[in-house]
Write a structure and sequence with these properties.
Quinone Oxidoreductase, Chain A, domain 1; 13 helices; 18 strands; globular
């Protein structure tokens, strides 16, 4: 079969790879019908997450079951399913406590309580380095799904583009807003108008936020945010001015809820680049620092952007003085997935309006290039095997 294979940073190719096989009775083999490039794929593409061996990319995908192992009795060949991005056994202590992202069994070789940079990571993820299990991802014609009896969900009878983002970015955006306890009447500011940020804005509106503000350094992404969510927007050209703009819109206090949907972004100064070398950091925490400044005292910050290392000059004193509540981590996808499927079926939330490019999987090199380099007004790429 053919797949998008990571060879080294900035080198992902459409290559021939071995067909996946059933390895455990709870596996299924999935024929992929649609897949997408996620912002966190760029952490590997840009070299921020270490990976030495070749690996098939992608954790946002769906398709049709081609073959099911004998332990999978709730799905069968021909079922059309969506695949949550977190690989979870469904039975360990963490899964039983609804912390499936911390599954003890899906990343056995690298799992541990510490959560270090290169050791003792959490549960498995598709196509996201050997540190998270080394699983082949779904930017491929076929993919093996472990623990399929627990992980998979039947796809609603809607076209792929309308439900594909149930696999990751909608649950991630939903987690950001739910963790903050948004009930209605709040001002929510979202740093980063990429796919996750757009989903967080949509969910904030669904939950009754009084004002939703999108902030980004790219005018075309702000335009997409305004088009798809109707939010107010702020172009971030200067960090201090962007924060002041949020305060002017909130009687000087700051937003009730701020979402960091950026993570360890690549945009940085020369000095920040030197600091990264000295402190073994990847990317910057510029967006996160703005989030802590833009939120009001006693407010909540949801951190959905990925941060892979420790960081110098983390503003702990500011967080303490402002009395902030912070929630960070992988989205609670299994806590929300069934509810979100219903919301999408009932058209309470629209997903496909953020897609800017639909391309054959064979053009994956071009797709990564325009997404990573922010070319051709690219916000979200869907790939068709």
């Amino acid at each position: 079969m053919k797949a998008a294979v990571f060879h080294k940073p900035r080198n992902i190719e459409f290559n021939e790879v071995p067909d996946p096989k059933i390895e455990h009775e709870r596996d299924v083999i999935l024929k992929v019908t649609s897949t997408a490039i996620c912002g966190s794929d760029l952490h590997m593409y840009n070299g921020y997450m270490p990976q030495v061996k070749d690996i098939v990319m992608g954790h946002e995908f769906m398709g049709i079951i081609e073959e099911a192992g004998p332990g999978v009795t709730n799905f069968q060949k021909g079922d059309r399913v969506i695949v949550p991005f977190v690989i979870s056994c469904g039975h360990c202590w963490f899964c039983s406590q609804h912390f499936e992202g911390q599954c003890e069994n899906s990343n056995a070789e690298n799992y541990g309580p510490e959560g270090g940079l290169l050791t003792e990571k959490g549960g498995g993820l598709y196509g996201y380095t050997d540190l998270y299990g080394g699983y082949s991802g779904g930017q491929a014609e076929y993919v093996r799904i472990p623990y399929a009896d627990f992980c998979l969900r039947m796809a609603p009878e809607l076209e792929d583009e309308k439900i594909l983002f149930l696999t990751d970015i909608l649950p991630t955006g939903y987690s950001a807003i739910d963790w903050a306890g948004v009930k209605g009447g709040e001002t929510v500011a979202v740093f980063g108008c990429g796919p996750v940020g757009l989903m967080a804005m949509k969910v904030a509106q669904l939950r009754g936020a009084k004002k939703v503000i999108g902030l980004d350094i790219q005018p075309y992404r702000l335009a997409k945010a305004a088009q798809t969510t109707g939010c107010e927007t702020i172009l971030v050209e200067d960090a201090k001015e962007a924060v002041e703009a949020v305060r002017r819109m909130t009687s000087g206090r700051g937003a009730d809820v701020v979402v960091d949907a950026v993570g360890m972004e690549a945009d940085r100064t020369f000095i920040q680049g030197l600091t990264n070398v000295i402190h073994a950091q990847a990317g910057t925490i510029n967006a996160l620092k703005m989030a802590f400044s833009a939120v009001r005292r006693g407010g909540h910050v949801s951190i959905m952007g990925v941060y892979g290392t420790t960081y110098d000059n983390f503003p702990l004193g500011q967080i303490f003085d402002k009395g902030l509540s912070i929630k960070i981590g992988q989205a609670s996808i299994y806590n929300y997935i069934d509810e979100l499927i219903t919301l999408v079926k009932d058209e309470k939330i629209i997903l496909d309006d953020i897609i800017t490019h639909t391309l054959p999987l064979s053009e994956v090199e071009h797709a990564y290039k325009i997404f990573a380099n922010k070319e051709d007004d690219c916000v979200k790429v869907v790939l068709k095997p």
